[in-house]
Design brief:
about 190 residues; mainly alpha; 2 domains; two-stranded antiparallel sheet; 8 helices; about 0% strand
Length: about 190
């Protein structure tokens, strides 16, 4: 944003506060990166919210079958709004962490992370053999995708092959998820 002309005619200086950069670049006890700490805290909060509260059960019900949830007495429009607000909050948190890591705000910073996020969620869907989305499985999927990408980078794999490998892992996760569904229905 350096050089951006502001509404009053002045130019943005492009200075990022050092405290903001600590969100993405610091470590807890010089061991655990702060984004990992944030991920663990958010995962615990959402685990408790989704697995141990009435609203969490209702959110799963609305996601599974909104008509049945409505017939059971759930306020479906309100719960959908809650789901979208929570999703927006998590997306904003992810954007803040990315901006703090790279030191600038850029609209295209997280564009390449979409397939990684989908792969993590689908891998997490199949992790516990529960056949339902779950926080623990999503965290395991995210760690798996992160380790996979770091390993490919350390092996000097060309960037375009990383997308092929991520795609293969995504197809494998879908196959496992589909296989679990077929096994349960049999």
């Amino acid at each position: 944003s350096s050089g951006l002309i502001l509404p009053d005619g002045s130019k943005a200086d492009g200075v990022v506060d050092k405290a903001f950069l600590l969100i993405g670049r610091s470590s807890l006890f010089d061991v655990v990166p702060m984004p990992v700490v944030i991920m663990v805290v958010v995962a615990v909060i959402f685990y408790v919210l989704l697995e141990h509260t009435r609203m969490g059960r209702l959110l799963f019900a609305v996601g599974g079958n909104p008509v049945a949830a409505h017939l059971a007495g759930a306020n479906v429009p309100r719960l959908k709004t809650v789901a979208y607000v929570l999703s927006g909050m998590l997306a904003s948190l992810g954007g803040i962490i990315i901006a703090a890591r790279v030191g600038r705000g850029d609209i295209s910073s997280g564009g390449s992370l979409l397939m990684d996020a989908v792969a993590a969620a689908l891998i997490g869907f199949a992790v516990l053999d529960r056949r339902v989305p779950n926080v623990f499985g999503t965290v395991v999927g995210a760690v798996f995708v992160g380790v996979l990408l770091n390993g490919l980078t350390m092996l000097n794999a060309p960037y375009y092959t990383q997308d092929f490998i991520k795609g293969a892992v995504l197809v494998g996760a879908l196959a496992i998820t589909y296989g679990l569904g077929a096994k349960r229905s049999a």
